[in-house]
Amino acid sequence: MEPFIVGALRRGRSVEQFLGPVGSPERPGVRYTEVRTARTSYEVYVHAFEDVGHEGFVGLDVFPLFDQETEEEDFGQLLGTAEDPEDALVLAEKLTGAVRGRWVNQGVVQDEYRYFVRAGRPSGMSAGG
Predict the structure, then answer these.
(1) What is the mean pLDDT of the chain?
(2) Which of 14, 69, 81, 105 could be stapled to 41 by a disulfide with Cβ–Cβ 3.0 to 4.6 Å?
(3) CA–CA distance from 59 to each of 55, 63, 68, 119 (Å)?
(4) Which residues on adjacent β-strands are paired with residue 31?
């Protein structure tokens, strides 16, 4: 595990990873995973949004939810919890396909979305980039 990512979680900061496209060409979306600190555990979330951005508009947190019928709301869909940060990262990787070594601090995932847009929104993009 990357010490700075585990350290961020231990300090109560969230970490994220851009996972790439979801949906179809007719209804494109993007998703990312997040591990955040809870009171006595670490929670793994996935967020899915309609891909409505462009290079100058990358604020994933203001994009419409991809599936309006889910109970995801603004905070994402809870996938699971773990008692320590390393286990939470492993759980996120297992449940979402996230890749070790690609975790970033909270908010940086929007820069990764910008790179995705600049690359032409490659449909075959995986979490590994």
Answers:
(1) 90
(2) 81
(3) 10, 7, 18, 17
(4) 20, 48
| Two structure tokens written together for 129 | 């980039």
Model confidence at 31, pLDDT cuts 50, 70, 90, reads very high
Q: Say how far apart CA 101 and CA 112 lie, in whole Å.
A: 14
**pLDDT at residue 75, as a whole number:** 74
Strand partners, 21: 30
- Within the chain, strands assigned E span 15-23, 28-37, 42-50, 77-82, 104-105
Residue 127 has a pLDDT of 46
Segment 10-35 mean pLDDT: 95
CA 88/CA 58 separation, integer angstroms: 27
Q: Compute CA distances 109 → 67, 78, 92, 127, whole Å.
A: 20, 18, 15, 12
* Burial state string for 79-100 with b = 16 or more CB within 10 A and e = fewer than 16: beebeebeebbbbbbeebebee
In the beta sheet, which residues pair with residue 110? none
Backbone angles phi, psi at 38, to 5 degrees: -110, -175
Assessment of whether the complete model's pTM goes beyond 0.85: yes
